[in-house]
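Researcher: Here's a chain I'd like modeled. Treat it as a single chain, no partners, no ligands.
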Amino acid sequence: MATAIDGLASGLNTTAIINSLMSVEALPQTQLKTKLASNQTIISTLQSFNTKLTALKELASGNAAAGALNLFTASSSSPSVTAKTTTTAAAGSIDLTITQLAQTQVNVTAAMTTWPTDGGGAPARLTIVDSKGKKTEIAPASTSLDDVVIAINAAFGGAQAVKVPAGNGTYRLQLTATASGAAGAFTAYQGTAAQVTAGTAVDLMANPGAAVVRSAQDAKATLYAGTPAAQVLTSGTNTFADVLPGVSVTATAVATGPVAITVASDVPGITKKAEDLVKSVNDVLGFIAIYTAVSKTTDAKGATVPKAGIFTGNSTVRAVNDQVLAALSRPINGKSPAEYGINITKAGDFTFDAEKFSKALAADPAAAQAAVQGLAIRVADAAKAAADPYNGSVSGLIKGRESEVRDLGNRIADWDQRLITRRATLQAVYTNMEVMLGGLQSQSAWLSGQISSLSKQSTGE
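Model: Modeled as a single isolated chain. Structure tokens:
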């Protein structure tokens, strides 16, 4: 950086003069910076707007999906029996009696210190046969019970093992089925798969001290108990699927009598979905209103003047507003949305009458659900047209502004270099001026000395 010393010859404050000239030179760059800041503010606001539109699109698309409003609640007359529904359910009721709960088979072997050997002195093979007759032959690495447990668990033969202390330095192998219910039943043998087939293998549960602690069994429930139409349902778990279409029932205890399962339309749940759609639309419309409103400000002279909002006069934003507004306000299936509690106000937003919607839903569930779903489809389409990252109108505005910001940044950077060069030029000019003035002052002093000398000679001094 060049170093300047003010006015050694001229007495002028050359630094202040140069700074003043540079402030004038920099006016175009200052204007560019102001425009850049304005664009960045607009981009930030548009991005926030796009986020709200995206949230509206996702919510509306969820409501528009097939079965999204097929919401039901299921109740049970017994605390030991619960029911759950899916969107494929239908209103109705049914009685069933829980007669048996599912069990997972657990076997324990006789107490032992080590695993036995075969006729050749090697650790005896072990074979597990599952409920389908599949034989899994297991070869322990040694007679250590720990190695037997490792081998059983690595074989995935339908049972998992754990070593349990049995006292006096002995242990039992506890074998637990990997699946609950009758499908998880298994038999464990000491011997090879071929010996099991030949009938020469030893059933581990036949040894003294061994036991089936818990046998494998399915849960059972009876529909229409005590009638000629009695029907037994079974499940490997304690959950019975599709007791009614889209309804599953889970039992935690055997019932002493019939349990009533009642399925009804989830009016509060459906109402909330409709209300959330209206709230999300209002969120978008309210955002537009805030940034379109003209406010008042004070100018440099103290006068009150109007100040346009960021979106004021923006035709794209206005079009989005009109499209979202129309999507929720136009008639649906030949009826006004107001018949379902969705009312447009003078302010250009919506109110939702939950009580009126609930009544419409109770009167004609299919029509009310279809109306909300149809409105959601239209709103989702309007929001997508604005917020789509590739073709959305608001996304296009953001991309356009971002391109302009990049261009402004490049132009500002060019001005930085231009101003650096201009300052160096001015400093050189004023430095040369000072040098020239310094030279002239030196010559003036020398001439003054010479003239003074001549005057003394002529007077004889």
